[in-house]
Design brief:
The structure is a single chain. By secondary structure, the protein is an all-alpha fold. The chain has 8 helices and no strands.
Length: 207
């Protein structure tokens, strides 16, 4: 009992005190970040066109962990606290956002590095919500205008088929014209003897 009071209990108390201090500091960091959100939003809107290509570039170059279905669904498409479990991938991505001077990234990155992303989930998820606007937009554009899968050989074959179809149409037109011409000539030939007979009959003397 004495050992419990003198050794174990103080150790447990220190752990809880340390965690309590850490949580308090993390909460203060979150409050400070919340107070600067208006400025972050203004800065974000001002740099939006410039940030888009940079965000897409670092996302494409990010670790495969960041692109796994779970993290992609919980951090990129629809940021949720559950996506913060993989602290290594999250922290690395925050570091990349700092490199491109993404608004608010420095404060969020420092807080995440010191207290862990889950204790400062508010600032971290706030940033990922901003990031998601670029990634989701890019994916939608790719869905609407998918890259052409037609090969050069298929294009050539398609062109040849069109040429053949055009030539066949021309041949059909020529045949129709020829048929009409033959019919006209035949009608004219049939009418010629009848005219000759009428002229002969008209020239014969009456008895």
């Amino acid at each position: 009992m004495c050992y419990w009071k003198s050794k174990v209990l103080p150790t447990i108390k220190k752990v809880f005190d340390k965690n309590g201090i850490k949580k308090t500091a993390a909460a203060e960091a979150c409050k400070s970040f919340d107070d600067s959100k208006d400025d972050i939003n203004k800065d974000f809107e001002a740099k939006k066109n410039e940030l888009g290509p940079k965000v897409i570039e670092i996302y494409e170059a990010s670790s495969t962990e960041m692109k796994t279905t779970t993290l992609k669904e919980t951090l990129v498409k629809e940021p949720k606290e559950a996506g913060l479990k993989n602290s290594t991938a999250v922290q690395k991505f925050l570091d990349e956002l700092v490199q491109i001077e993404f608004p608010g990234s420095k404060a969020a990155c420092e807080a995440s590095s010191e207290y862990g992303p889950r204790l400062v989930s508010g600032p971290v998820l706030f940033l990922f919500e901003k990031v998601s606007t670029f990634i989701v937009t890019e994916e939608r554009e790719n869905e609407v205008t998918p890259p052409s899968t037609i090969t050069a050989g298929e294009e050539e074959a398609s062109g040849q088929e069109k040429e053949i179809a055009i030539q066949e149409e021309k041949n059909e037109e020529v045949a129709v014209v020829a048929e009409k011409s033959e019919a006209t000539e035949a009608a004219a030939a049939a009418a010629e003897p009848a005219k000759v007979e009428e002229v002969a009959a008209a020239g014969s003397p009456k008895p």
